[in-house]
Amino acid sequence: MKISANTLHFKYNNTKIIDGITFKLEEGKFYGIVGPNGAGKTTLLKLMSKILKPAKGEIFIGDKNIVELSYAEIAKVIAHIPQNSSFQPFSVFEYVMLGRIPYLKRLQKEGSKDREIVENALKFTDTLKFKDKSITEISGGEKQRVVIAKALAQEPKILFADEPTSQLDIKYQVETLKIFKQLTKQGMMVICTLHDLNLAAMFCDALMLMHNGKIFATGSPENVLTEENIKNVYGIDVEVKRAKFLYIVPKI
């Protein structure tokens, strides 16, 4: 499943947030959206999820305009992990089962197939051992893996994640991004907003560098994360070094 956008525009009140963005993204790739605070990263994810509606422009999921798709239809294709997930005192298993809602009719109870899908999502994210615990009782890193499991229970073809590593220690940051990388190897498209440029360079197949609501640069991490681009977008001098992976250090 591919996703594309044509000359997207979006405003909050009278402030331009997204300013004429056009792109095409392919299935089976891990995309990172990077850029400073206020660049429009989160807004772009919300537009592609139909949480927000563009002032101008079009978004296509496959060959269908997103405006033609119902929210239930979108939820069967796209799973969206927000920056901050709220948690009721459900068990982990009950929480992940919420991912099956798009497939259930009104007042319909989940069946054996739904339970199997949820169990497989828990196994994939190594959270099956927590299934009977309250989600409010597990650690932040464990919660994030459970949130991913809930997204996988939707059986999406495209996964959006907004700053999925921002509140995690380095162990869970790496574990989370490894899960996403594994999903792309199975054919899923993953699109993450990320602040850590080194993690973005290490895990992402391609990057979109945003600045003032526009795409400043797009392509491989090596082509996007140049010293010149980072200086122009972030206003900081850095040194870009290459070992096994690209890595970026500030000049002091």
State the end-to-end CA separation: 44 Å
Gyration radius, in Å: 19 Å
So what's the oligomer here?
single chain
- Quote the beta fraction: 25-35%
Beta strand count:
12
User: Low-confidence runs (pLDDT<50, min 5 residues)?
Assistant: none
- CATH fold description of the largest domain: Rossmann fold
- Strand order within the widest beta sheet: 6-7-8-3-9-10
Average pLDDT number: 93
Number of helices: 9
Name of the level-1 CATH class of the largest domain: Alpha Beta
Overall structural domain count: 2
Helix content: 25-40%
Question: Helices and strands, in N-to-C order?
Answer: EEEHEEHEHHHEHEHEEHHEE
Shape: globular
What do we call the CATH homologous superfamily of the largest domain?
P-loop containing nucleotide triphosphate hydrolases
Largest sheet: 6 strands, mixed
Question: Could you describe the 3D structure shown?
Answer:
By secondary structure, this protein is an alpha/beta fold. It contains 9 helices and 12 strands. The protein has helices at 41-48, 71-75, 92-97, 112-124, 140-153, 170-185, 197-203, 221-224, 227-234, and strands at 3-12, 15-25, 30-34, 56-61, 64-65, 78-81, 158-162, 189-193, 206-211, 214-219, 238-242, 246-250. The strands form 3 sheets. A 6-stranded mixed beta sheet has the order 6-7-8-3-9-10, with helices on both faces. The chain has a 4-stranded antiparallel beta sheet with strand order 2-1-4-5, with helices on one face. The chain has a two-stranded antiparallel sheet with strand order 11-12. A hairpin with a 2-residue loop joins strand 9 and strand 10. Helix 4 (112-124) crosses helix 5 (140-153).
